[in-house]
Write a structure and sequence with these properties.
- The longest helix is centred in the last third of the chain and has 16 residues.
- This protein folds into 2 domains: 193 residues, Rossmann fold; 146 residues, Glycogen Phosphorylase B (Rossmann fold).
- The chain is α/β, with parallel strands linked by helices.
- The chain contains 16 helices and 11 strands.
- The N terminus is likely disordered.
- The radius of gyration is 21 Å and the shape is globular.
- The chain has a 7-stranded parallel sheet with strand order 3-2-1-4-5-6-7, sandwiched between helices.
- It comes from Salipaludibacillus agaradhaerens.
């Protein structure tokens, strides 16, 4: 069955994505599914300052104990939809009890993991000496993964760094890279700033290595002419306007893999600095243009780019090409649909 005919069959596949928006991925995947004529919507319980788009939202902290919400889920949302694509170990109920209901109703369900919902420090340190994690309570992660995977046999992760944390739990693990709408990112690799603008936008300063980055910037300021912007607590739309002006993007120094900020930077034709562990360097495509830097080397890597400003446009061009090849939402949403075919 082809992608097009899948949604044009007598019984249309109605998909719900929920219930936590991570780096705009729920919305972007849903947009990709809609491109292939598959009805898809997002349900976000956890709105934050980034203010990503969502079709509809429920304030779980306010309504989760009300009978009205339970009746809505049981009488409308669940019966009216065919496949549930959950994210970040969340589902319709805070305790994931709905996974039992959905399984009993033979509703296809898939879980999409994104990072701190599965990342365990002991496993991370096996392949990454600079690893840090947001959640230190490994037993709680293990317990939740065991429960979820006892109800769901398929999961998706964006890269092989996260595959390591889930492969012992799920029967089937699929890797689909994070995705963006490339048309929404202005591509301009030409350097325009007389003083190069370096941008860092941490959502979690400890995990992103922000103290090391700020220290490196302070050490370099007396010796080089450049500007530095630390973007914090801004909406995604506001932050993106700053990214567009950047000459160099700095993502994260501890995880060992790159995230959406790196992808956005590459899509805009920016040279990106991000720590890529030796383990992940072997997993990514060989043409990965990201400049790898860890807490010990970040100063030297920034200095190297400042000394070779003429090289920035060429790195930016390779970055855009890489984003087009591996992170286009239409291509990757087609891969999601192929996974749906396996589980319906």
């Amino acid at each position: 069955m082809t992608t097009k005919t899948m949604s044009q069959s007598k019984n249309r596949l109605n998909v719900v994505h929920g219930t936590m928006e991570i780096a705009n991925q729920m919305y972007t995947i849903s947009k990709g599914l809609q491109y292939y004529s598959i009805p898809a919507k997002t349900l976000n319980y956890y709105r934050n300052y980034l203010n990503y788009s969502s079709e509809f939202e429920i304030d779980w902290s306010r309504y989760r104990t009300t009978e009205k919400l339970k009746l809505y889920l049981l009488n409308h949302l669940i019966p009216e939809n065919d496949l549930f694509h959950f994210h970040f170990a969340t589902s319709l109920y805070r305790d994931n009890y709905d996974l039992t209901l959905l399984k009993n109703l033979n509703k296809p369900v898939i879980m999409h993991h994104w990072g701190s919902d599965v990342r365990q420090l002991s496993k991370a340190l096996d392949v990454n000496p600079y690893a840090k994690v947001k959640v230190a309570n490994t037993p709680s992660i293990d317990k939740r993964l065991r429960y979820i995977s006892s109800h769901i046999s398929h999961c998706i992760v964006p890269d092989d760094e996260l595959r390591r944390y889930v492969e012992d739990y799920y029967e089937h693990v699929h890797v689909v890279p994070s995705m963006i709408d490339l048309d929404a990112y202005t591509f301009n690799p030409l350097q325009k700033n007389e003083k190069p603008l370096i941008v860092h936008a941490p959502t979690h300063s400890k995990i992103k290595g922000t103290p090391h980055i700020v220290k490196a910037i302070e050490q370099l300021k007396p010796h080089y002419s450049f500007e530095f912007a630390l973007v914090e607590k801004a909406s995604h739309l506001e932050a993106k306007k700053i990214y567009e002006k950047a000459d160099i993007i700095i993502d994260q120094l501890h995880i060992g893999s790159y995230g959406l900020f790196s992808i956005e930077g590459m899509a805009m034709g920016k040279p990106v600095i991000c720590y890529i562990s030796d383990y992940m360097l072997e997993k990514y495509p060989p043409e990965l243009p990201i400049i790898s830097a860890n807490p010990d080397t970040i100063r030297d890597k920034i200095e190297e780019l400042l000394k070779n400003k003429d090289a920035l446009p060429e790195i930016g061009l390779k970055s855009r090409e890489y984003a087009i090849k591996y992170h286009d939402y239409k291509k990757n949403s087609a891969n999601i649909i192929d996974i749906y075919k396996l589980i319906i």
